[in-house]
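Here is one chain, start to finish.
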Amino acid sequence: MTLRVRYAPSPTGLMHVGHLRAALPNLLLALKENGTLILRIEDTDFDRNKIGSEDGFYEDLAWLGFSFAEGPHLGGPVGPYRTMERNERGDYTAAVNKLLASGRAYECFTSPEELDLLRKIQTSKNEPPRYDNRHRNLTEEQKNAYRAEGRVAVIRFRMNDGEIVFQDLIRGEQRFKTENIGGDPVIVRSNGVPLFTFAGAVDDIAMNITHVIRGEDHIVNAAVQVQLYEALGATPPQFAHVALMLDKDGHKMSKRFGALSIKILREQGYLPTALAGYIASLGFAEAPHANATLQELATSFDFARVGKAPVRFDEDQLLHTNTTALHHSTWEQVEPYASAFLPAYATATELSTLWPMVRESLNTLSDIPAALEPILKAPQAQSFTEDEKIFLQAASEALPSTFTTNTWSEWTTTLKAATGRKGKELFMPLRRALTGQEHGPELAQLLPVWGPAEVRSRLQSACN
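Its structure:
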């Protein structure tokens, strides 16, 4: 059977680094095993769904280099690929009816007030909150009485007593006693909308998903889903639950995710290869070089190397990874992303020529304007001493009429002999006069770019 995995986000906001950590191992496994990656949108949370969120996921995933074989925007043989569209078609109703007919599901009329009272009683006894399955065996007369009160039932899944055992590709054998899971779980709300635990299992069966890879916060859901798969007559997929991602101080990242959305990081000038490479380095795969592609990352992906302990996301380390990637990037690698950061006075052609000279000064692509300004724009007026002005005038007069790759070395050697200046005393006035800055690309590389007329003009301006 062909390996089939899915990434199933909810459209409740911007895609962020937490989403990327959930999506990436699915992609890497599909690439490594020549499997199929499916995108599924789980849009059942009406209160939190955001207009435009789904389109934002498409844009961010495409920027990151993700390629899906099937999905809402692509279609496919087992669609539709949105939960609510499948709900409207009746997929979950059919599954619920099957469970009701077999006795594995039942209507529950317990009110929110009764559930709240139950939790308070359990808490007062230092017991973990759990539903006590009180409506498992209601008679039709009892159900009708509740309906007459105006109560609307939810559907609960009847858990079989005993122990649930399954293998996790990361965590090994997992064992859960059903009495510790929290009682029979709700699988369909009173408004007819399925909970993702149930809908996900139904969809995984219909879409022939072979591996479910997700965060460790879903591992208890997996125990419930094992029984759901079996009750629906299906074999459970293989599960792999990856460790949570914390911030660098070991705290939950939920409050930081807004500032770490893929959209914001993209606008700040991060490269997709750097972002994916850094997330992959947190226990998934080892990048063979600074600008490794997703396919290259996939070659080293192995569940055996994925740790069980939480990993820490360090923004400083991400920036370092991005800086390294930029410093080792060719123009062809950055061209699709760099053009968005060009200042009005520069062209992509100019940046392509200057790229080997400016890339070493970049931490993100948003640094491009600052790197180009001293090269493509005349420097602002600088303050020079009279001795420095005399030196710069001599430098202008000694400037050759044509430039070669050796001009800088030959020119400064001549100036050193003529003026007695050397080291910083020689080079700093030239750099400040030509660029307006004390640091920057090698002037030996820039002279041929400027040409004699531009260099002479900048030197003369500094002398005035």
